[in-house]
Amino acid sequence: MLDATSSYNPMGTRIPVADRTGHRTVPETTRSTERRLPGTRYGNRPTMKDVAARAGVGLKTVSRVVNGEPGVTPETERRVQEAIEALGFRRNDSARVLRKGRTASIGLVLEDLADPFYGPLSRAVEEVARAHGALLINGSSAEDADREQELVLALCARRVDGLVVIPAGDDHRYLEPELKAGVATVFVDRPAGHIDADVVVSDNFGGARDGVRHLIAHGHRRIGFIGDMPRIHTAAERLRGYRTAMEDAGIPVEDPWMSLGVTDPERVRRAAREMLSGPEPVTAIFTGNNRVTVTVIRVLAGHPRPVALVGFDDIELADLLQPGVTVVAQDAAALGRTAAERLFRQLDGTLLAPERIELPTRLITRGSGELPPAD
Amino acid sequence: MLDATSSYNPMGTRIPVADRTGHRTVPETTRSTERRLPGTRYGNRPTMKDVAARAGVGLKTVSRVVNGEPGVTPETERRVQEAIEALGFRRNDSARVLRKGRTASIGLVLEDLADPFYGPLSRAVEEVARAHGALLINGSSAEDADREQELVLALCARRVDGLVVIPAGDDHRYLEPELKAGVATVFVDRPAGHIDADVVVSDNFGGARDGVRHLIAHGHRRIGFIGDMPRIHTAAERLRGYRTAMEDAGIPVEDPWMSLGVTDPERVRRAAREMLSGPEPVTAIFTGNNRVTVTVIRVLAGHPRPVALVGFDDIELADLLQPGVTVVAQDAAALGRTAAERLFRQLDGTLLAPERIELPTRLITRGSGELPPAD
């Protein structure tokens, strides 16, 4: 039992709680302060015993009613139900987990909850989970391998039946005991490292190669590439696509044309401006993901000469800009749906060997990728 | 224990698993099929007993090591740790929940995982949860009151310590037993119905009123309003702001100027086109949220006359369109952060009465809201 002044610290570390300031606060009516009284907060949930006492029946009878088992007269069932409602009793699913082994929940580990790419992916995973009667538990690694591991193991400790993981790290041997213990796992967007696991990815290499070929077909030779950190699988694959398209066209790539790193606007802005300056500026840019594309669009909007642009990932309103933004689109919802369906096939026991599933990308031409070289 | 052909149905309903088709499938190496063998999937996690047997110590000693209690020699602790690693033993947090009462997790119930408005809000809640050592469990109601209730109660059954809820329904009396039992709860974006609970909202009324006043100040009198379903609190409040601004300016609102309903592009497109046709078309439109704004921008892009536009919610790239889109911006991250901090103050036991906290909105002028009437 907690005293009224103790901090919330279920894991045992004491962390000060930040004050909220600067907002208007309008107190409402205060009818129901009952739940705030110290001493009533925890550990006082009604139990089956309480229900049995109130209904004047045995514990086994309550258990039968709660679990929908036979052998209870309608009149007794009514009394038990009345007691359940009066006391606000609810079955504790944590106890069920321990008894039955399965929790009807799956975990989804994202890279960033705020990246719009993951919105349709998450929703698709949730839809599939729901169709299988399972709850989706969700969290993000913020592109930090330690945090990914912490979150994955926290979900496993809560006994999720399966995991859909967009990995931040590149070594997933920490998952081996969980896999052995039967936690179904599917990686999505990026593959697992050092373990065999199902993975669903877009054709990052082929999509980027086709996007750069498109720029080459429109007369460009000095083509820049601005991408995410090369340790991220998707970034490396898209860079490989860029290099392959250039090599296939017999264009030697010069170092200043490639810039890889974090996708924050400041870094991307600097990279774009560097490529666009000097005696031999690039005449076209291929951007490695939606975050990079949005920043490069802003740089090009303020640039004196037209510069061609093809971006990996579609972005909202890209068709209404002047020019419209040509993109290599992934199907984020299909990635999520495919991964989740695969997960439930693992849980069915119908899959034997891990597979790699690759979904195609789609080039959508809207104007920016069809601009000719400015010089 | 499940047999290999049974469907995943932990809740007891049998649902067929959809087949994935139409994607390239590339089998990978199959070194590790061990985890897929029937009979090894469930119920064979190593227990403390297994660890004790392997380390050649008693169960109490293993328990001491696992829970960081004193009274174990370094040599014994080393043997136990080796056994833990060799067996892949992990403490079962479901059991801890039952013993300790708190789970170090909070639930977040969203309206739609794919709406970009909820991205920064979710991330802010997660950051606060993490700062308090708690895991965020997340799900969406898809704007369905029954689904909201189902999800909230499922999270309560898993004994989350607290809930941040963006409600879909308007009657939350179903939560009363949970509140009594001590589940901390904060509503965000929209208030709770028929219960007293903390709520953090934007100033939807004032923001919409200021946006419409802005259009009136630029000479408009025939101003349309396209919003979400009026049973949604935010939609009703923004409509009230529109009506108040019009009334304050002495402009009688005509019925054809107001369109409320679902925000799917088809309905919004039709509504906008109707307002823009006829002998006395509107010269300006106020849009009730980001989903509506995006569709109206498309309609206006194809319209022969310039029409002024102010939208509720900011949208990405709004500044780069021609004209730039004037918006009433909410601070989605501040909503999430404020709600989550409030939740942890409840869990600290430092709050007594439920409050309503209202965050200000911000008018951002970019061009579309400053266009004069076209006639």
Automatic annotation (TrEMBL), chains A, B:
In terms of CDD domains, this protein maps to:
HTH_LacI (cd01392), PBP1_LacI_sugar_binding-like (cd06267)
Could you name the domain of life of the organism this protein comes from?
Answer: Bacteria
Domain annotation HTH lacI-type: ranges: 46-100
Tell me the GO molecular function terms: DNA-binding transcription factor activity; transcription cis-regulatory region binding
Going by the UniProt record, its keywords in alphabetical order are: DNA-binding, Transcription, Transcription regulation
List residues traversing the bilayer.
none
Region (Disordered) residue ranges read 25-46
Bias (Basic and acidic residues): 25-37
Identification of the protein by name: LacI family transcriptional regulator
Q: Which organism is it from?
A: Streptomyces pilosus
